Amino acid sequence: MEETYYVIEGRRIVDIKFMFNKISKIKHEGFDCTFLNLSLQKEKRYGFYSEFIFICNMCNKKEIISTEPSLDTNGLLPINMAVVSSSVNTGQGYSQLHQFSAILNMPCMSNPLYQKCHEKVSSYTESVALEGTEEAAKEEARLAIEHGEVNKNGVPMITVVADGAWSKRSYRSNYNALSGVGCIVGYRTKKVLYIGVRNKYCSVCHKADVIQK
Question: How many domains does the chain have?
C-alpha cells in the first residue's frame, strides 16, 4: 500500500528555539524513533498559530509540534496578539495585514479573530495608558510640592501644557477628519497626564438610528 503524505505549503511564523527543542527531544522508547521517522498528517491553524500533527512510521505514536508554546511561558505576547498589536501600532488594519500575509505566501488570520484580538489589545493598551497617566500625575504633584507650588489647602498646583489635533486636507478638496485628539502634558516631566479622543461619527449610534432604537 502506497503511503500518503499531507502536503503543506506557504510560510509560517515560528518560535525557532522552541521548535528546535521540541524536535530534538522526540525519541520513542523501544524503537528509538526520532523526528526522522515521523510523517506529517495534518496542520491545525488558529490564526498565525499552528499545530502540526505527526504519526511515527515505526511505532505509530502521535506527536504534536506547535509553532510556539501554547501557554505564555516565555513572557511574550501570543503570536496572534503580537501580530494585531504590531498592526495597530504601525497604523495598519486587517486589510493591510491580509495583503502583507498574501505577499509573504503565509496564511492570514480570519477577520473575526483579528477583531477579537483587537478588542483585547485595545483594552490592554487603555489600561496601561491609564496607569502611565496616573504615575505621571503623582510625579508632577511631587515636583510641585517640592517647589512649593501648592494652594492654601495644600493641593499641588501643577503646571501643564494642553494641545489638540485632527487631520485636515486642503489639496484639491477640503477635508476635516471626523475624529480628533486632545492631551494634557505635565510641564516638568513632559509626560502625558490626560488624553481624550472625540468622534463626530459613531457606528453604534448610526446603527441605532437605522433600526430606530
Answer: 2
